Amino acid sequence: MRPALHDERELTTLRHLDEMLHRPDVRAAIDAVASRVLAQLEADALAPLAWESIPLGLYGDTLPRFIRSSWVFVLRGNSASGAERHPNSHQRVMSYRGVGDLQVFVDEEWRSHVLGDNPEAPLLSRWASIPSDTWHQAVVAGPHWVVVSFHTVPDHELIEERPDSIGSDTTHRRRYVGWRISDLPTEEQT
Questions:
Q1: Helix (H, G, I), strand (E, B), or coil: what is residue 157?
Q2: Sheet-wide strand order for 145-151
Q3: Which DSSP string corresponds to 88-138?
Q4: Which side of the chain, N or C, has fewer Cβ within a 10 Å radius?
Q5: 8 Å CB contact between 75 and 100
Q6: 147 DSSP β-pair partners
Q7: How far apart are CA 172 and CA 184, in angstroms?
Q8: Under CATH, what is the fold of the domain 3-181?
Q9: Residues 42, 87: Cα–Cα separation, whole Å
Q10: What are the residues whose beta carbons fall under 8 Å from the beta carbon of 117, sequence distance 6 or more?
């Protein structure tokens, strides 16, 4: 991760989000969303992940004003999500249930950032902060991994960008709302 991401202002933001996610009412609501998203993932054996947007009202009026959407993602166990980036949003992500390696492409190499769900672990062992337009991917070596994500654009504006094919300089963009991961072209289609 880039050292500048962990300045005191960013750490304060992550601490605040972390506190919100430990409220019993918030956890109960996220658990319900995570169950639905897990069912979506289980229903599509080829999908590397599934997701659902969380209404911001769940968090009350304590969210920082620059947080414009929140999501639950479930990443398939024993798999990699593939490289992606969000050209229009800074992402903050917490390991909610399980363990995964959130790899970030920095200085021409993939850097591991293993995140776990132990609430007693240090903050940066549970959270990652990914600036806009930064390539990242999740590698999950064990069971499915549930993460909660916060973005700086509304849910209907969040763009995911993926390489069209391995080694390609071109990308494929989609908005998360209104599409599924299985809508992306396969290697045979590119």
A1: helix
A2: 49-54, 69-75, 145-151, 91-97, 127-130
A3: T--EEEEEEES-EEEEEEETTEEE--EE---TTS-GGGTEEEE-TT--EEE
A4: C
A5: yes
A6: 73, 95
A7: 8
A8: Jelly Rolls (2.60.120)
A9: 29
A10: 95, 96, 97, 98, 99, 126
Entry field: residues in the chain: 190
DSSP 8-state symbol, 53: E
How confident is the model over 118-162, as pLDDT tens digits?
A: 999 999 999 999 999 999 999 999 999 999 999 999 999 999 998
User: What are the boundaries of each domain within the chain?
Assistant: 3-181
Q: Which residues of the chain have pLDDT under 70?
A: 1-6, 164-190
Query: Distance between CA 33 and CA 62 in Å, rounded?
Result: 20
**Which residues are CB-neighbours of 108 under 8 A, at least 6 positions away?**
none
Q: Residue 105 is encoded by which pair of tokens?
A: 């492409």
- pLDDT at residue 1 in the model: 40
Cβ atoms of 162 and 87 within 8 Å: the answer is no
The distance in angstroms from the start CA to the end CA of the chain is: 31
Strand runs labelled E in the chain: 49-54, 69-75, 79-80, 91-97, 100-106, 109-111, 114-115, 127-130, 136-140, 145-151, 159-163, 171-175
The amino acid at residue 130 is I
Residue located via tokens 């492409």 = 105
Amino acid type, 86: H
